Amino acid sequence: MSFGLIVDSCFRDHATGRHPERPERLDSIDSAFKEHKILESCHCLSFEPAEEEFLEKVHRKEMIERAFATSAKGGGFLDPDTILSGYSARVATQAAGASIALARAAVQGEFRKGFAVVRPPGHHATHQRSMGFCIFNNIALAAEAMLELDSIRKVAIVDFDVHHGNGTQDIFYERGDVFFLSLHEYPHYPGTGQTEETGAGEGQGTTLNVPLPPGIDQETWFEAFHKGLEAISQYNPDAILVSAGFDSHRRDPLGDFPLDEKAYTRIGGLLADLAGEHPLISILEGGYNVDVLGSSVVAYIDGLRGR
Question: Would you say residue 1 has pLDDT above 80?
């Protein structure tokens, strides 16, 4: 079966200047895709921007309106880390729409596995706040899109970004139909993601945080990852979504984790084995060293495809 892929030049229109989360990240990925002829062997999807009504499934209306109002006046900061240009709010709806399209297509059988190369990232955006480079929460919206389909009763989200996916946790913390696993550096931004944060109400036990100290070695990281995957296997989801953050690379300037390209191939293979015949989609989150971002994404996709 083919591998689903979303790439589009529209994501460059989120202009952020010299900010770490900048359009040049996509240049790194595009170059690596061309070098390894990734596009020629994938099913490339089209998509539409997410409608505001769908965004409201995970975000407060006031938060959405603030992003559009900030862009409408030419841009500005939503928080000290999150900058918008005049086009950024629309680009954020395109990133969300791409993630939703990938999710639906995977469940509907166009492919079993896929990857969305989008920006801005999303996993820090909470129910009511854009933050941490993130405007809307792409992975949460993709999960909601899957759960609307008859064949999907529950999903699991795996987040291997070096930063805790606080937004995703916030959105699904009291939900029993979404299992959230995050392996992240701690202490580190945004300061959440401790082991005692396990969910609440109907979601009690469906959040698994694995905070890891800076400077750990790869095998320690993978030991923790295996335990997290075992918990997901017991949860038995109908689909798996991945917040693929490549700032967990050992050369990334915004973290101190031990991973490299070979590790990302290994991660992709483990996730593919876990998913089996179930849908498995990945959405780009962090990764700020443009010298290794593209090669890391290709290595991860190779792992997903069993290469």
Answer: no
